[in-house]
Amino acid sequence: MSYFKNVTNIQYEGKESKNSLAFKYYNPDELINGKTMEEHLRFGVSYWHTFTGDGSDPFGASTMIRPWDHYSKMDLAKARVEAAFEFFEKLNVPFFCFHDTDVAPEGSNLIETYENLDSITAMIKDYMKTSKAQLLWNTANMFTHPRFVHGAATSCNADVFAYSAAKVKKGLEIAKELGAENYVFWGGREGYETLLNTNLKLELDNLARFYHMAVDYAKEIGYTGQFLIEPKPKEPTKHQYDFDVATALAFLLSYDLQDHFKFNVEANHATLAGHTFEHELRMARINGMLGSVDANQGDTLLGWDTDEFPADLYSTTLAMFEILNNDGLGKGGLNFDAKVRRGSFEPEDLFYAHIAGMDSFAIGLKVAQKLIEDRVLDDFIEERYNSFTEGIGRDIVEGKADFHKLEAYALQNDAIQNRSGRQELLKAKINQYLLESFANVRV
Predict the structure, then answer these.
(1) Taking the model in full, what pTM does it have?
(2) Catalytic site residue from 102, 242, 337, 359
């Protein structure tokens, strides 16, 4: 059966198109610097928001109208697989992502849960044989069930730690079975509410032990996908141990895990951490740790994870600037960890939202590539720091200076002259490139 009867395959029709169910800027076959847009952007659909989200929030019941809602339990899980692959095909995306509980319901015990997962995994694998859409990453939900009230790998209860290990063990087996290019560790409740009842050192040590066990098991079964950690500062716990890229990187370095993990950076999580999206991307990039991206945006007027579909062209441009300078995302991709608004409850809204997000990143890709080609930011930054390419600056960079030498230099150099950072000029330049991209005119 068809779950999206009112939608045909989404095509690229160009910016003059009036068809709401068509791409205006995302042309998967268009070449940008030797690679197609599809190869650059590697779009993925999140299973949880798209097929299991119901529009409920702390103040109201579900609002979403979904043609598979009349099913229940495993019948519902199977219907969602059918709907998902119809959606992937009509949207023409190369990837999708899921948590274990997104695709299969938990059973009355772990054995039954495994049986449910095995059944749905086999069904997904069968669909993947004839589908373009492949698995970008999977992960384990270790935050919804009451057993995870105190965390998973950082729980004060060793039984919960063991249960969590079993879930990730199964998740890695599924990742190998379905050929997942990545496996994500999303902290969930890996954090604390108050230090008054928390053994901080033990929880961090246990989290590191858990990650090392996962690395060892992946090697044991021959799973070669990339491991990703997704930083998030808060929600559901007040203080998450993977607060932001810098905090998570310090953790990996402290526990000798840096060679086994990269980061899955999310825009809305950056906002919650008090950073910009591009800040988190650059922190990951300059440390060789940018692995994948959750493409969404937050609402600056709200203090929680709103997970809106990305439509801010300034943000998508600066994000793609970082991704292009990272030489792409490798095994990673741009996964739409985003949900339609509670009032956008009809099935067609899922397509409108993804089209908006894909077009937004397509524009960002093209503008970022022009900024790089014309060295708009690179030349300015290079000139701004040119004092470190000669004289005393070069000595500092090459390790030939010490405090004695620097003091002697400073004592005879009274004429310090700083130059403007020209922030406003650079913002105007980016606006110029954005606007002229729509007119197809080179700057």
Answers:
(1) 0.96
(2) 102
